[in-house]
Specification:
Layout (H helix, E strand, L loop, with lengths): L4 E10 L2 E11 L4 E5 L6 H8 L7 E6 L2 E2 L5 H8 L2 E4 L11 H12 L4 H14 L15 H13 L5 E5 L7 H18 L2 E5 L3 H6 L3 E6 L2 E7 H5 L4 H8 L14 H12 L29 H12 L5 H34 L1 H6 L5 H11 L6 H6 L5 H6 L13
Parallel strand pairs: 3-8, 3-9, 6-7, 7-8
Antiparallel strand pairs: 1-2, 1-4, 4-5, 9-10
Helix pairs in contact: 3-4, 3-5, 4-5
The structure holds adenosine-5'-diphosphate (ADP) and magnesium ion (MG).
Length: about 400
């Protein structure tokens, strides 16, 4: 089971610049959590503080009973082995092949023989859909492939905690859906605790069990995903809708005069550019691919949320109840298909359920998994020249995560 990460009263500054203060949250073991927040609010700094790369002035980060803000370098070295980290830019060594990049943690942290290293590296390369590209240098491949190589490297030590800094940045909506699905599949397979730092609202809506948001140097909230998605807080609503009208400004807080001018513009029907999507309408969480075990954290998460329920706002309570009912329906149908049709049938469940008559919740579930970004998604994919090289290598050649879907 994944390891719980418990953060209490954490404060971080660089010189006189305070980044965030008094941040407290717990990443429940084996659950998937997301951290949202405008650019520059210190999400990456938070992630680096969790692995002891940056040192906070105050507070504690308890992992497996050890406060990593206080422990010795030797203890920290041991604790770090629990982590797999996908940094924002992939952080690959430019002069090393993908193979050597991915093998690096194994050669550094273990005494495994080269044939064992090769077995593990090739397994992870296969998992992230990079088979055939192992001899390439990071500079020779697309951003999406670098991201997946970074993820493969994060996975080689079988981490119990996985941190992903903007796994979606630089990826088109379809590739983003694949990498999100991969994270859910990995969670189902190894029950690792996962934290995803992201701006991507589709990820926030469909992947995590819990969501937190950093804003104005503070953690605005952290709780079950339904709580944030149904929040009435202006900053949360603005962030989710991607609108320029609201408390979040281009570079700093907006003053009252600006806020009043915006209110007048809105009243006059001028758009702030945001989506009109209703985020309070909870859509089903992404499920592990056919053939994967069920996520063990789902039951634990539900238990925890039920205990928490009375303390949550009424709209969050209602959203959670509806979402649980929806989940039960999706899971029951998925189980029925897997049992009734065996492995072969399981692989076909997408097609089968997508056409299941009169079953709205079920028909919706696979669609959300594969159709991230709505009808525009595939179009955007082909229009992204920077990602062009990716197409030849992954999905067509190794449709590991595309099984039964084409
Ligand atoms: N090593 C560092 N030294 C000084 N300032 C830093 C350092 N790392 C990040 N910062 C500052 O911390 C703030 C938050 O950065 P970051 O965590 O990268 O934001 P986010 O990931 O939310 O976009 C920024 O103002 C950035 O300039
Ligand atoms: Mg960042």
């Amino acid at each position: 089971m994944g390891v719980e990460v418990s953060v209490e009263g954490l404060t971080k500054s660089f010189g006189s610049q305070n980044i965030w203060r008094d941040v407290s949250l717990t990443l429940p073991s084996g659950e998937v959590s997301a951290l949202l927040g405008p650019s520059g609010t210190g999400k990456s700094v938070f992630l680096k503080t969790l692995i002891g790369l940056l040192h906070p002035e105050q507070g504690s980060v308890i992992i497996d009973g050890t406060d990593i803000t206080q422990c010795s370098a030797k203890e920290l070295y041991e604790i770090r082995k629990l982590f797999g980290v996908l940094f924002q830019d992939g952080a690959l060594f430019g002069s090393m092949s993908l193979y050597d990049n991915i093998a690096f943690p194994l050669r550094e942290h273990t005494k495994k023989k080269e044939d064992e290293v090769r077995r593990i590296v090739m397994e992870k390369i296969d998992l992230v859909g990079l088979a055939g590209a192992e001899d390439k240098l990071p500079g020779e491949i697309s951003g999406g492939m670098r991201k997946r190589a970074g993820l493969a490297r994060a996975l080689v030590l079988d981490p119990q905690i996985i941190l992903c800094d903007e796994p979606d940045s630089g990826l088109d909506p379809v590739r983003t859906a694949y990498i999100s699905q991969l994270l859910i599949d990995i969670n189902a397979q190894i029950d690792a605790t996962i934290l995803i730092v992201t701006h991507n609202i589709n990820i926030a809506r469909t992947i995590p069990d819990n969501i937190g948001m950093l804003f104005r140097k503070e953690l605005v909230m952290f709780g079950p995903r339904e709580q944030l998605l149904t929040s009435e807080q202006p900053v949360v609503k603005q962030f989710l809708s991607g609108d320029r009208f609201g408390p979040i400004g281009m570079s700093e807080e907006k003053d009252e005069a600006v806020a009043a001018a915006e209110a007048a513009m809105q009243a006059a029907g001028i758009s702030g550019g945001g989506t009109k999507d209703d985020f309070t309408e909870i859509i089903p969480q992404v499920q592990p691919n056919p053939g994967m075990p069920e996520r063990k954290a789902v039951g634990r998460h539900r238990q925890r949320v039920l205990e928490l329920l009375p303390s949550l706002p009424a709209n969050a309570q209602q959203a959670i109840r509806e979402s649980m009912a929806m989940e039960d329906e999706v899971l029951a149908t998925k189980r029925a298909h897997e049992q009734g049709q065996g492995q072969a049938g399981a692989a076909e469940w997408t097609t089968a359920t997508a056409t299941a008559p009169g079953s709205v919740a079920v028909a919706d579930a696979p669609t959300d998994v594969y159709d991230f970004g709505g009808n525009d998604a595939p179009t955007q994919q082909w229009e992204t020249p920077a990602d062009a090289p990716t197409e030849q290598v992954d999905t067509t050649k190794k449709p590991r995560h595309g099984d039964g879907r084409s």
